[in-house]
Amino acid sequence: MKIAVAGTGYVGLALATLLSQHNEVVAFDIVKEKVDMINSHISPIKDREIEDYLKNKNLNLRATLDYQDAFYGADYIIISTPTNYDPEKNFFDTSSVEDIIMKVKELGLDTTMIVKSTVPVGFTESMKRKYHINNIIFSPEFLREGKALYDSLYPSRIILGENSERAQIFANLLKDGALKENVDILYMNNTEAEAVKLFSNTYLALRVAYFNELDTYAELKGLSTKNIIDGVCLDPRIGDHYNNPSFGYGGYCLPKDTRQLLANYRDVPQNMIKAIVDSNETRKSHIANMILSQNPNTVGIYRLTMKKDSDNFRASAIQGVISNLSNHDIDILIYEPTLTIPYFNGYPVIQDFDEFTERSDIILANRLEKPLTRVRKKVYTRDLYSKD
Asked: What is the pLDDT of residues 301-326, one digit of tens each?
Protein backbone atom coordinates (compact mmCIF):
# COMPACT_ATOMS: atom_id res chain seq x y z
CA MET A 1 0.00 0.00 0.00
CA LYS A 2 1.29 3.48 -0.85
CA ILE A 3 0.81 6.23 1.70
CA ALA A 4 1.64 9.90 1.15
CA VAL A 5 2.48 12.16 4.08
CA ALA A 6 2.26 15.94 3.63
CA GLY A 7 4.45 17.71 6.18
CA THR A 8 7.46 16.25 8.00
CA GLY A 9 7.31 17.85 11.43
CA TYR A 10 7.01 15.75 14.58
CA VAL A 11 3.65 14.28 13.62
CA GLY A 12 4.32 13.74 9.93
CA LEU A 13 7.78 12.25 10.25
CA ALA A 14 6.75 9.99 13.14
CA LEU A 15 3.83 8.65 11.09
CA ALA A 16 5.94 8.30 7.95
CA THR A 17 8.51 6.31 9.89
CA LEU A 18 5.90 4.15 11.61
CA LEU A 19 3.97 3.31 8.45
CA SER A 20 7.04 2.75 6.24
CA GLN A 21 7.85 -0.40 8.21
CA HIS A 22 5.14 -2.25 6.26
CA ASN A 23 4.11 0.14 3.46
CA GLU A 24 5.56 2.36 0.76
CA VAL A 25 5.60 5.90 2.17
CA VAL A 26 6.41 9.07 0.24
CA ALA A 27 6.75 12.20 2.38
CA PHE A 28 6.15 15.58 0.79
CA ASP A 29 7.66 18.75 2.22
CA ILE A 30 8.47 22.20 0.85
CA VAL A 31 11.82 22.47 2.66
CA LYS A 32 14.62 21.00 0.54
CA GLU A 33 17.00 20.58 3.47
CA LYS A 34 14.50 18.36 5.31
CA VAL A 35 13.81 16.30 2.20
CA ASP A 36 17.53 15.76 1.60
CA MET A 37 18.13 14.76 5.22
CA ILE A 38 15.30 12.21 5.23
CA ASN A 39 16.55 10.70 1.98
CA SER A 40 19.98 10.43 3.60
CA HIS A 41 18.42 8.60 6.57
CA ILE A 42 19.01 11.55 8.88
CA SER A 43 16.24 12.96 11.06
CA PRO A 44 15.68 16.73 10.62
CA ILE A 45 14.18 16.83 14.14
CA LYS A 46 15.52 15.65 17.47
CA ASP A 47 13.75 12.41 18.31
CA ARG A 48 15.77 9.42 19.50
CA GLU A 49 13.47 6.75 18.05
CA ILE A 50 13.08 8.49 14.68
CA GLU A 51 16.85 8.91 14.45
CA ASP A 52 17.35 5.22 15.25
CA TYR A 53 14.71 3.95 12.83
CA LEU A 54 15.90 6.10 9.92
CA LYS A 55 19.47 4.97 10.45
CA ASN A 56 19.05 1.31 11.35
CA LYS A 57 15.67 -0.01 10.19
CA ASN A 58 14.78 -1.21 6.72
CA LEU A 59 12.12 1.39 5.92
CA ASN A 60 10.34 1.87 2.61
CA LEU A 61 10.46 5.66 2.95
CA ARG A 62 11.54 8.50 0.72
CA ALA A 63 10.88 12.23 0.70
CA THR A 64 10.14 14.58 -2.17
CA LEU A 65 9.56 18.24 -2.99
CA ASP A 66 7.05 17.18 -5.68
CA TYR A 67 3.55 16.75 -4.28
CA GLN A 68 2.36 15.04 -7.46
CA ASP A 69 5.04 12.40 -7.02
CA ALA A 70 3.80 11.82 -3.49
CA PHE A 71 0.06 11.94 -4.08
CA TYR A 72 -0.40 10.03 -7.36
CA GLY A 73 -1.06 6.37 -6.71
CA ALA A 74 -1.43 6.82 -2.96
CA ASP A 75 -4.09 4.85 -1.09
CA TYR A 76 -4.11 7.42 1.72
CA ILE A 77 -2.81 10.99 1.99
CA ILE A 78 -1.96 12.05 5.53
CA ILE A 79 -2.07 15.80 6.15
CA SER A 80 0.26 16.84 8.97
CA THR A 81 1.12 20.39 8.00
CA PRO A 82 1.50 23.13 10.64
CA THR A 83 -1.48 25.14 11.88
CA ASN A 84 -1.56 28.02 14.34
CA TYR A 85 -4.07 30.00 16.37
CA ASP A 86 -3.93 33.80 16.55
CA PRO A 87 -5.66 34.88 19.79
CA GLU A 88 -5.60 38.55 18.77
CA LYS A 89 -7.67 37.90 15.66
CA ASN A 90 -9.51 34.87 17.08
CA PHE A 91 -8.36 33.07 13.95
CA PHE A 92 -7.02 29.55 13.46
CA ASP A 93 -4.71 29.49 10.45
CA THR A 94 -5.42 26.23 8.66
CA SER A 95 -4.26 27.45 5.26
CA SER A 96 -1.55 24.78 4.97
CA VAL A 97 -4.15 22.03 5.42
CA GLU A 98 -6.49 23.62 2.90
CA ASP A 99 -3.60 23.94 0.46
CA ILE A 100 -3.13 20.16 0.49
CA ILE A 101 -6.88 19.57 0.12
CA MET A 102 -6.92 21.87 -2.92
CA LYS A 103 -3.89 20.15 -4.44
CA VAL A 104 -5.54 16.75 -4.10
CA LYS A 105 -8.75 18.05 -5.64
CA GLU A 106 -6.91 19.80 -8.50
CA LEU A 107 -5.20 16.52 -9.35
CA GLY A 108 -8.62 14.92 -9.67
CA LEU A 109 -7.87 12.37 -6.96
CA ASP A 110 -10.47 10.73 -4.75
CA THR A 111 -7.84 9.42 -2.36
CA THR A 112 -8.86 9.38 1.29
CA MET A 113 -7.20 12.23 3.17
CA ILE A 114 -6.45 11.76 6.86
CA VAL A 115 -6.09 15.08 8.69
CA LYS A 116 -3.59 14.81 11.55
CA SER A 117 -2.97 18.54 11.97
CA THR A 118 -4.73 20.23 14.88
CA VAL A 119 -7.78 22.05 13.54
CA PRO A 120 -10.80 23.89 15.00
CA VAL A 121 -13.85 21.90 16.05
CA GLY A 122 -16.05 21.55 12.96
CA PHE A 123 -13.21 22.10 10.47
CA THR A 124 -13.34 18.75 8.66
CA GLU A 125 -17.07 18.88 8.01
CA SER A 126 -16.72 22.49 6.83
CA MET A 127 -14.07 21.35 4.32
CA LYS A 128 -16.48 18.74 2.97
CA ARG A 129 -19.05 21.45 2.34
CA LYS A 130 -16.61 24.04 1.03
CA TYR A 131 -14.88 21.79 -1.52
CA HIS A 132 -17.80 19.41 -2.18
CA ILE A 133 -15.77 16.38 -1.14
CA ASN A 134 -16.31 13.37 1.08
CA ASN A 135 -12.84 11.81 1.02
CA ILE A 136 -11.54 13.36 4.24
CA ILE A 137 -11.36 12.07 7.84
CA PHE A 138 -9.94 13.68 10.96
CA SER A 139 -7.73 11.56 13.20
CA PRO A 140 -6.13 13.25 16.22
CA GLU A 141 -2.55 12.59 17.29
CA PHE A 142 -1.30 12.57 20.88
CA LEU A 143 2.46 12.85 20.51
CA ARG A 144 5.10 14.40 22.74
CA GLU A 145 7.95 16.46 21.32
CA GLY A 146 11.11 14.39 21.28
CA LYS A 147 9.11 11.17 21.75
CA ALA A 148 6.82 11.33 18.74
CA LEU A 149 7.75 7.97 17.25
CA TYR A 150 7.81 6.30 20.68
CA ASP A 151 4.25 7.52 21.26
CA SER A 152 3.27 6.20 17.82
CA LEU A 153 4.83 2.82 18.60
CA TYR A 154 3.04 2.71 21.97
CA PRO A 155 -0.16 4.70 21.32
CA SER A 156 -2.57 5.44 24.15
CA ARG A 157 -5.43 5.11 21.65
CA ILE A 158 -6.23 5.44 17.96
CA ILE A 159 -9.18 7.65 17.03
CA LEU A 160 -10.85 8.03 13.62
CA GLY A 161 -13.57 10.56 12.83
CA GLU A 162 -15.57 8.05 10.82
CA ASN A 163 -16.74 4.45 11.26
CA SER A 164 -16.28 2.99 7.80
CA GLU A 165 -14.19 0.43 5.98
CA ARG A 166 -11.63 3.03 4.89
CA ALA A 167 -11.32 4.31 8.46
CA GLN A 168 -10.92 0.81 9.82
CA ILE A 169 -8.22 -0.02 7.26
CA PHE A 170 -6.26 3.08 8.21
CA ALA A 171 -6.63 2.40 11.93
CA ASN A 172 -5.23 -1.08 11.37
CA LEU A 173 -2.28 0.35 9.43
CA LEU A 174 -1.38 2.39 12.51
CA LYS A 175 -1.96 -0.60 14.77
CA ASP A 176 0.18 -2.89 12.58
CA GLY A 177 3.10 -0.47 12.83
CA ALA A 178 2.87 -0.20 16.62
CA LEU A 179 4.77 -2.33 19.10
CA LYS A 180 2.07 -2.06 21.76
CA GLU A 181 -0.48 -4.84 21.82
CA ASN A 182 -4.19 -4.38 22.43
CA VAL A 183 -4.44 -0.76 21.29
CA ASP A 184 -7.85 0.82 21.87
CA ILE A 185 -9.45 2.05 18.64
CA LEU A 186 -12.35 4.48 18.80
CA TYR A 187 -14.61 5.51 15.92
CA MET A 188 -16.74 8.65 16.15
CA ASN A 189 -17.67 11.54 13.89
CA ASN A 190 -15.12 14.11 12.75
CA THR A 191 -16.34 16.93 14.97
CA GLU A 192 -16.22 14.72 18.06
CA ALA A 193 -12.69 13.59 17.14
CA GLU A 194 -11.60 17.22 16.78
CA ALA A 195 -13.10 17.99 20.19
CA VAL A 196 -11.20 15.06 21.73
CA LYS A 197 -7.89 16.60 20.65
CA LEU A 198 -8.65 20.04 22.08
CA PHE A 199 -10.17 18.77 25.33
CA SER A 200 -7.31 16.30 25.86
CA ASN A 201 -4.64 18.96 25.47
CA THR A 202 -6.57 21.45 27.56
CA TYR A 203 -6.80 18.92 30.39
CA LEU A 204 -3.02 18.41 30.22
CA ALA A 205 -2.59 22.19 30.32
CA LEU A 206 -4.94 22.29 33.33
CA ARG A 207 -2.76 19.82 35.18
CA VAL A 208 0.42 21.76 34.38
CA ALA A 209 -1.25 25.00 35.48
CA TYR A 210 -2.54 23.40 38.70
CA PHE A 211 0.86 22.26 39.92
CA ASN A 212 2.44 25.53 38.80
CA GLU A 213 -0.05 27.50 40.90
CA LEU A 214 0.58 25.13 43.81
CA ASP A 215 4.29 25.93 43.41
CA THR A 216 3.64 29.69 43.24
CA TYR A 217 1.73 29.49 46.52
CA ALA A 218 4.43 27.44 48.23
CA GLU A 219 7.23 29.69 46.99
CA LEU A 220 5.58 32.88 48.22
CA LYS A 221 4.56 31.32 51.56
CA GLY A 222 7.99 29.81 52.23
CA LEU A 223 6.75 26.21 52.06
CA SER A 224 8.28 23.11 50.43
CA THR A 225 6.62 22.56 47.08
CA LYS A 226 8.02 19.04 46.93
CA ASN A 227 6.57 18.02 50.27
CA ILE A 228 3.14 19.28 49.27
CA ILE A 229 3.20 17.67 45.81
CA ASP A 230 4.44 14.35 47.19
CA GLY A 231 1.62 14.37 49.73
CA VAL A 232 -0.99 15.30 47.15
CA CYS A 233 0.16 12.85 44.49
CA LEU A 234 0.21 9.74 46.68
CA ASP A 235 -3.56 9.82 46.30
CA PRO A 236 -4.06 7.21 43.51
CA ARG A 237 -6.90 9.28 42.08
CA ILE A 238 -4.36 12.04 41.37
CA GLY A 239 -1.14 10.15 40.70
CA ASP A 240 2.43 11.39 40.36
CA HIS A 241 2.49 12.06 36.61
CA TYR A 242 2.61 15.49 34.95
CA ASN A 243 3.28 17.13 38.31
CA ASN A 244 6.68 18.78 37.89
CA PRO A 245 6.51 22.59 38.23
CA SER A 246 7.71 24.60 35.26
CA PHE A 247 7.66 28.14 33.90
CA GLY A 248 4.37 27.35 32.15
CA TYR A 249 3.02 25.09 29.45
CA GLY A 250 4.23 25.68 25.92
CA GLY A 251 5.23 23.93 22.72
CA TYR A 252 3.37 23.10 19.53
CA CYS A 253 -0.01 22.20 20.97
CA LEU A 254 -1.01 23.28 24.46
CA PRO A 255 -0.95 27.10 24.08
CA LYS A 256 -2.83 27.15 20.77
CA ASP A 257 -5.23 24.34 21.65
CA THR A 258 -6.32 25.91 24.95
CA ARG A 259 -6.95 29.24 23.23
CA GLN A 260 -8.76 27.58 20.37
CA LEU A 261 -10.99 25.64 22.77
CA LEU A 262 -11.74 28.87 24.64
CA ALA A 263 -12.73 30.47 21.33
CA ASN A 264 -15.11 27.55 20.72
CA TYR A 265 -16.81 28.40 24.02
CA ARG A 266 -17.81 31.90 22.91
CA ASP A 267 -21.52 30.97 23.06
CA VAL A 268 -21.20 28.36 25.84
CA PRO A 269 -21.02 29.15 29.61
CA GLN A 270 -17.60 28.47 31.12
CA ASN A 271 -15.11 29.64 33.75
CA MET A 272 -12.43 26.96 33.87
CA ILE A 273 -11.26 27.06 30.25
CA LYS A 274 -10.47 30.78 30.45
CA ALA A 275 -8.77 30.25 33.80
CA ILE A 276 -6.44 27.65 32.25
CA VAL A 277 -5.39 30.14 29.58
CA ASP A 278 -5.01 33.02 32.04
CA SER A 279 -3.11 30.91 34.57
CA ASN A 280 -0.27 30.32 32.14
CA GLU A 281 0.28 34.05 31.64
CA THR A 282 0.10 34.64 35.40
CA ARG A 283 2.73 31.98 35.97
CA LYS A 284 5.20 33.52 33.51
CA SER A 285 4.65 36.93 35.09
CA HIS A 286 5.31 35.45 38.54
CA ILE A 287 8.57 33.84 37.42
CA ALA A 288 9.75 37.15 35.97
CA ASN A 289 8.84 38.96 39.20
CA MET A 290 10.83 36.48 41.28
CA ILE A 291 13.87 37.12 39.10
CA LEU A 292 13.44 40.89 39.25
CA SER A 293 13.18 40.78 43.05
CA GLN A 294 16.86 39.73 43.13
CA ASN A 295 17.91 42.87 41.21
CA PRO A 296 20.20 41.22 38.67
CA ASN A 297 22.11 43.19 36.07
CA THR A 298 22.35 40.25 33.66
CA VAL A 299 19.96 37.30 33.39
CA GLY A 300 21.11 34.21 31.54
CA ILE A 301 18.51 32.05 29.79
CA TYR A 302 19.58 28.41 29.80
CA ARG A 303 17.86 26.78 26.81
CA LEU A 304 14.83 28.03 24.95
CA THR A 305 13.51 24.51 24.48
CA MET A 306 10.50 23.31 26.45
CA LYS A 307 11.62 19.79 27.24
CA LYS A 308 14.67 17.62 27.60
CA ASP A 309 15.63 15.73 24.41
CA SER A 310 13.87 18.31 22.26
CA ASP A 311 15.14 20.88 19.79
CA ASN A 312 11.85 22.75 19.56
CA PHE A 313 11.26 26.04 21.32
CA ARG A 314 8.11 27.13 19.52
CA ALA A 315 5.91 29.02 22.01
CA SER A 316 8.10 27.88 24.90
CA ALA A 317 7.10 29.34 28.25
CA ILE A 318 10.55 30.77 28.89
CA GLN A 319 10.05 33.12 25.95
CA GLY A 320 7.06 34.56 27.78
CA VAL A 321 9.26 35.09 30.83
CA ILE A 322 11.84 36.82 28.63
CA SER A 323 9.10 39.10 27.31
CA ASN A 324 8.18 40.10 30.86
CA LEU A 325 11.82 40.72 31.77
CA SER A 326 12.45 42.78 28.65
CA ASN A 327 10.34 45.63 30.03
CA HIS A 328 12.99 46.26 32.69
CA ASP A 329 16.51 47.63 32.58
CA ILE A 330 18.43 44.35 32.61
CA ASP A 331 20.63 42.53 30.12
CA ILE A 332 19.54 39.15 28.82
CA LEU A 333 21.85 36.46 27.45
CA ILE A 334 20.78 33.20 25.84
CA TYR A 335 22.50 29.84 25.83
CA GLU A 336 20.89 27.56 23.26
CA PRO A 337 23.17 25.02 21.53
CA THR A 338 20.68 24.44 18.69
CA LEU A 339 21.00 28.08 17.58
CA THR A 340 23.81 29.08 15.23
CA ILE A 341 22.80 32.74 14.95
CA PRO A 342 24.44 35.54 17.02
CA TYR A 343 21.13 37.02 18.22
CA PHE A 344 17.67 35.69 19.01
CA ASN A 345 14.91 38.33 19.08
CA GLY A 346 17.62 40.93 19.67
CA TYR A 347 19.29 39.09 22.58
CA PRO A 348 22.89 37.82 22.31
CA VAL A 349 23.29 34.08 21.90
CA ILE A 350 26.37 32.88 23.77
CA GLN A 351 27.82 29.66 22.36
CA ASP A 352 30.42 29.12 25.06
CA PHE A 353 28.83 27.68 28.22
CA ASP A 354 31.58 28.93 30.56
CA GLU A 355 31.32 32.45 29.18
CA PHE A 356 27.54 32.29 29.54
CA THR A 357 27.67 31.26 33.21
CA GLU A 358 30.41 33.76 34.03
CA ARG A 359 28.52 36.73 32.57
CA SER A 360 25.15 35.80 34.11
CA ASP A 361 24.15 37.01 37.58
CA ILE A 362 21.18 34.63 37.57
CA ILE A 363 20.59 31.70 35.25
CA LEU A 364 16.99 30.91 34.41
CA ALA A 365 16.42 27.20 33.65
CA ASN A 366 13.03 25.60 33.04
CA ARG A 367 14.64 22.20 33.59
CA LEU A 368 17.73 21.58 35.72
CA GLU A 369 20.20 19.73 33.51
CA LYS A 370 23.55 18.23 34.46
CA PRO A 371 25.78 21.03 33.06
CA LEU A 372 24.20 23.46 35.55
CA THR A 373 25.16 21.53 38.67
CA ARG A 374 28.53 23.25 39.01
CA VAL A 375 26.89 26.70 38.97
CA ARG A 376 23.82 25.65 40.95
CA LYS A 377 23.97 28.71 43.22
CA LYS A 378 23.30 30.97 40.25
CA VAL A 379 20.41 28.91 38.89
CA TYR A 380 16.74 29.80 39.35
CA THR A 381 14.49 26.85 38.46
CA ARG A 382 11.27 25.34 39.76
CA ASP A 383 12.21 21.87 38.48
CA LEU A 384 11.82 19.28 41.25
CA TYR A 385 11.81 15.87 39.61
CA SER A 386 14.03 16.26 36.50
CA LYS A 387 11.20 15.15 34.25
CA ASP A 388 8.77 16.85 31.89
From this structure: 999 976 665 556 667 899 999 999 99
Select from 205, 310, 316, 224 the least CA-distant residue to 262: 205
Q: Which fold has domain 2-188?
A: Rossmann fold (3.40.50)
Rounded to an integer, what distance in angstroms lies between the CA atom of residue 376 and that of residue 388? Answer: 20
pLDDT in tens, 164-196: 999 999 999 999 999 999 999 999 999 999 999
CA distance 324 to 190: 39
Fold equal for 2-188 and 224-380:
yes
* CATH number, domain 224-380: 3.40.50.720
Which position among 114, 143, 174, 253 bears the catalytic label?
253
Average pLDDT over residues 36-50: 95
**Domain boundaries in the chain?**
2-188, 224-380
Q: Is the pLDDT of residue 200 over 90?
A: yes
- Asked if 253 is an active-site residue, the reply is yes
Amino acid 12: pLDDT: 97
Residue 8 has pLDDT above 80, yes or no: yes
* CA–CA distance, 273 with 338 (Å, rounded to integer): 34
pLDDT given at position 94 = 92
| pTM, to two decimals | 0.91
